[in-house]
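Section 3.1: Structural characterization of target chains.
Under the original work plan, the team committed to producing a structural model for every single-chain target entering the pipeline before any wet-lab resources were allocated. The record below documents one such target. The sequence was received from the expression subgroup and is listed exactly as submitted; it comprises 220 residues.
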Amino acid sequence: MATSGTATFNPDVANIIEEAYERAGIEGRSGYELRSATRSLNLVLTEWSNRGVNLWTLEQGTISLVAGDGQYDLPTDTVDLIQHSLRDLSGNDIDIRRISVDSWASIVNKTTSGRPTQIFIERLIAPRVNLWPVPDQEYTLVYWRMRRLQDAGTPDKTADVPFRFIPALTSGLAYHLHCKKSVIDPQRLEMLAQRYKEDWMDATYEDRERASFFIRPRVK
């Protein structure tokens, strides 16, 4: 028997919502219910940003540093920086150490000039980085960031997730939709929660870093 010869399954938001409604045991497809489901889908996507590093959201970026300026804005959809280094005019990359707010606050003279060796990341609504010492010449900050997942958008759009996470996204939405019912079926809710947990664990186990990982103490 011949196979399809394709591997392009990637349902749009409307199909994910329809599947989730069926799993949640909800009938009816009014305009309000569609808006409600889209809102819940956006909440699921937002929730995933709190669950760790989603590898498909990692992006490399750069910031051109100028002498005398130690504070720079990051893209507003940045969740956090995963790695960062300083590139000098010769093209050499040098690691810089991330410090906490306590360490940043304890720096007596934050206007000291030199080659930056430390970075403090302010995870504000509009995130930014602070470098110390303040750059004494032109450098480039090279970083890898985790960005926010894009909004669900209109029903004809596809979700900002790889195909591996479509089952988890559908299960998560079905669970959230059933939670919003006026009369909740405890057994179905428990089943949906367990299915969501299993689908999420399966997807995140596959979506992991394959390289060897070593922990070395910092020796001064």
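The chain is about 30% helix and 20% strand.
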